[in-house]
């Protein structure tokens, strides 16, 4: 009897690689780059550490792919949306309304690895190729500076709302808060901020 044909996305190697990547995203979003080892990630994924190393080349390679994976879906939404400022604000608000401390995997990975030079270089590379360059093409004016400023604004607001939990920024009227954020993002894109 012939074996049923296996869908390419269900190959054991691909499934193992996806498990490794998912485990890395989870662990790097909770712990610093320096405190995480490939053995811990491999154990969480249920694979041999040598296989995890072969699949991603190194811990830094896996970290880089984990961050890329964590931001990929949000970037895809931003690249396809009709209104960039509105969509950026909506993604931000959705993240800030999550349970306390849940900033989103990408931002959590970034925050947990701020002190490590290797991790920062990897994050900068991914942010440039996956965020800055594609979104700069979407901006009406202002270019890369506008994207950097918009991203910094949203990241800062997310940290303020989730980590610092400032009562002054609580939003009893979500839509009014969103309109203010959208207005600021549009001002940045139009080069109206000094």
UniProtKB/TrEMBL annotation:
Query: Which Pfam families does UniProt cross-reference here?
Result: TetR_C_16, TetR_N
Which organism is this protein's natural source? Answer: Thioclava marina
* UniProt protein name: HTH tetR-type domain-containing protein
The record's section on PROSITE patterns has: HTH_TETR_2
Keyword annotations for this protein? DNA-binding, Transcription, Transcription regulation
Q: What is the lineage of its organism?
A: Bacteria, Pseudomonadati, Pseudomonadota, Alphaproteobacteria, Rhodobacterales
Q: Name the domain of life.
A: Bacteria
Q: Which residues bind DNA?
A: 37-56
Q: Where is the HTH tetR-type domain?
A: 14-74
Which InterPro entries does the record match to this protein? Homeodomain-like_sf, HTH-type_TetR-like_transc_reg, HTH_TetR, Tet_transcr_reg_TetR-rel_C_sf, TetR_C_16
| Database matches in PANTHER family | HTH-TYPE TRANSCRIPTIONAL REGULATOR BETI (PTHR30055:SF234), HTH-TYPE TRANSCRIPTIONAL REGULATOR RUTR (PTHR30055)
